[in-house]
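Person: Show me a sequence?

Helper:
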Amino acid sequence: MKTSNRRFRALTGIAIFATFCLIVLGAVIRATNSGLSCPDWPVCYGFWVPTPAKLATIPNVDYTYLQVMYEWVHRFIAGIIVGPLVLVLAIWALTMRRENLRPGLFGIAALALLLVQGLLGGLTVLDRNSPWSVAVHLGNAQLVLAMLIGMYVSAGRPAQSALVWTEPVPRAARLLVLLVAALALSTIASGAMMAKNGASLACSTWPLCDGDVIPPLDDPMVALHFTHRVLAGTTALSILALFLWARSMRARAPGFSRDMHRTVGLVALQVGMGAAVIMLHVPVWTAATHQAMGVLVLASLVVTALHAAFGPETGVPRPHPKALARHQASA
């Protein structure tokens, strides 16, 4: 792998990590009710940097300085770190398009989604952190992360990167992994809706809902909570089914089996964290860890889908014909 390609993947890895931290910090903000601790946007109480001294001049601030800092740091990471990183990566990826077009395509998509994300962030504040705006904001953040992962994986080469499979997988497996990833994304968004509506403990026991397999759904909070559990259970069972299928073909598709082993392990941890959220009555650390694990499950599915899509049947990654001709001529 070229030195420039390694540097590109390293910078993309930094962007992926920063985006992951941003999403987890969002869960902390939601769990601590800090979403409106900066009531205006893009500034915070009219200040770009709200110091304690500056906030002391504002009457009737109903939030602690720590809550304000949660929101401000979230905006700082998004606007000063993740935003410029994605812009640089998108431009860099486009300069490599003759050798490998795919990172550039993912980069353009990531940049477009990031612009949407900024608008959604402002809308979330202006809409007073309504549950639907929080869920859409979080869902779009997952798509940004998925595009960054796409840049990272597609920049690898099959003979030089352990992150790319060397064997084909059935087309049905590719489609099912994508469908389960979409289901996982819906589950994460429903969790944000549930938490923002104050329904995290509408079912106060686990795994049953206050002793019922299917609780009475006339209470909207119980219905919202139970919907999240149904989506989570369906996602977990779907991943388990994919895992068993991958094991059955591990002799001819060991990469698929390895990826699904990782994913099902993350799901097991996520189920445990979901139970802890209920049993411990939603302390901040469990809420943040639960969302972090959900993001990791989705990221694992995205990686699996990319590996399946970029397997040898689809030519990973196919060099540009002119670049290939130049290489053959120089050889």
In short: The radius of gyration is 22 Å. Confidence is low (pLDDT under 50) at residues 158-164, 312-320.
